[in-house]
Specification:
This protein is mainly α. The protein has 7 helices and 2 strands, in the order αααββαααα. Helix 6 runs antiparallel to helix 7. About 25% of the residues are buried.
């Protein structure tokens, strides 16, 4: 078995494990303590760690193709931005009180560093758009074979996370656990999508 076939076999096994994780998230909401899903709690911190680690791994194992290398750099930059979002742009370090469903943080409107955050986001987003237009062949990527299985899992995780956020299946408390588990699964799917595109030339 050559290395490419082995990599895709691992890719399929990885997606299968994530699908199993989505199924297991249903009973897990009744087993795990609600504290695990608090803002700035175990699951959210794990999400941040996954996003940052995934971004680093994507940068380390970039494609040999110049255009795909830029695409993967852009992908990694997006994951880093998502990690900052999970940290609420730093607001998690300014808790106000702890309620039944976790800590409450200062609102963005009252956030002391909101202006530097807005400037950073505008600059960062402009740089990402410039790189996308200047260095990435979007047409080539769109016309290439797509990671449909990974996209299907991603959509499933997004929908289930949304269901959990609104407490439609398990109520607000258990729904919060369901939301955070599926959000974590979503973030684990993203590096698999980047890996799929890595071998496009």
């Amino acid at each position: 078995m050559n290395s490419t076939k082995l990599q895709y076999r691992i890719y399929k096994i990885y997606l299968g494990a994530l699908f199993a994780a989505i199924i297991l998230s249903l009973p897990l909401v009744f087993v795990l303590p609600v504290e695990i899903s608090f803002e700035n709690g175990f699951l959210e911190n794990t999400q941040v760690a996954v996003l940052i680690l995934s971004a680093l791994l994507i940068l380390i194992f970039c494609s040999e193709s110049a255009q795909m290398r830029w695409f993967q750099r852009l992908f990694a930059a997006g994951l880093f931005l998502m990690a900052l979002r999970e940290l609420s742009w730093g607001r998690v370090f300014f808790p106000l009180e702890v309620e039944k469903l976790g800590p409450v943080f200062v609102s963005m409107a009252d956030y002391e560093y909101r202006i530097p955050v807005y400037i950073f986001l505008a600059t960062y987003s402009a740089a990402m758009i410039f790189i996308l237009v200047r260095f990435v062949s979007v047409k080539k990527i769109l016309l290439s074979p797509q990671p449909l299985a990974a996209f299907a899992l991603m959509i499933m995780a997004v929908i289930l996370s949304y269901v959990g956020e609104h407490g439609w299946l398990f109520g607000k408390m258990h729904g919060q656990i369901f939301e955070e588990i599926n959000e974590l699964i979503l973030y684990l799917i993203l590096p698999a999508i980047s890996f799929y595109y890595r071998n496009l030339t």
